[in-house]
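ugh finaly. both done.
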Amino acid sequence: MAPRNEGKGRPARKPVFVVPCWPRLALLTVVVLLAGCAGRSTDSVPQQQTVVAQLDSSTPMMSMLSSMAPAFVLRESQEPHNRIGRVQALGTKENETLVVDPEHPVVYAEARPFATEKGSYTNLVYRIHFPELPYSLIPFHLSAGKHVGLLVILTLDAEQRVLLATMAQTCGCYAVSVPTQSLPAALYPDDWPQAPLAVYGERLPAVLPSLQATDVLQVVIREDVHRIMDLQIVAKSSLPPETVLEAEMRELTALKRLPLADGSQTSWYYSDWPLAGHVKGAIKPWESLLLSLISLDFFVGMDKEYGDAKESGNPFYTSLKPWNRSASDMNDFAGYLRFNGWKL
């Protein structure tokens, strides 16, 4: 609202606020401290890393998994929480601690066949984890917590052509599937858009080019929140060598056989009710507080195992609607495709 005029035709005099000396000094101190944080040295770690899996020729399947693995572009990688890490178990069976070591990147992978009424396919499953998603009020990080992860799944046909790239956080959140041009458009969901996909605040391409043997799926991950913010098909030779960091590739099942100091083993996942099938230490307090009622799941947002849910009874559901829990379970990938309208 415009200021009210006082008197005849004269604009109102704006009030003058005098800031006391001490608050001004405190404000100046905060500015200086923030400037100091912004200007810290990042010489040891580049601002952006491109993590690629090392070639593993121990078995034909591991060779294929490593040769077709995505390249993960990590922004603001000078921050440890923005780096892919190795899952480790410290201590003993009676006193264990699970951590993600950002100094040693690891991509966990496996191949998983599935079938639909129209054919047989193979999913190449890639799983990565970060130490944490940091707590923040401005901007607000709803999914703040430890041990967060990301899945990228490439769906291959019998000729080993990549038809579909499916991405989801390891809590089941933000799941999306993007076709390549190798998938006939008749198998897309009805009314598939031509414009970029809007995925909960991010924009991803609606269709990707076909992948050739010399190409790689480049997955750009937003800093702090670890959301996928871009997908591209690029030539492997075009990856900038100054930012490329090779990651070890391990079998996905290695997450259930983590060695401890006393010679025993433990799992990345809880085995007992009510947390069976969830990642240890991955409780997300904000999501539990704000989303548990509408999802009817107190542990909503908590990262979980992806695989056969029969042992844990913990579905990898991708819809918050309780009545869609079974239909949207990505453990049953054929059912997940039907739920989302894909016609493979």
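ok and the 2nd:
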Amino acid sequence: MEKFLYYSPFLLAVMVFLIQQRIVVTPEQLEKKHREILNDIEERFVSINSYKDLKEQFSEMKDKIDKIYDAIVFK
């Protein structure tokens, strides 16, 4: 315990430096950053379900275009 008291000013200075430079974060700061990242992802990227739906719609459109092409060419 006496060693902690001897080194306490140095330990305190190191802890203040780490917190001041934001090397050590609090759980609230971590949660806030997590929410920011999730919101950024929602704005920039599409969900997998939306992607699959759009891919299916393109496939249906391609089939319809092929049918129209076949009807025009082979008449």
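summary for the 2nd one i guess: The chain has a mean pLDDT of 90.
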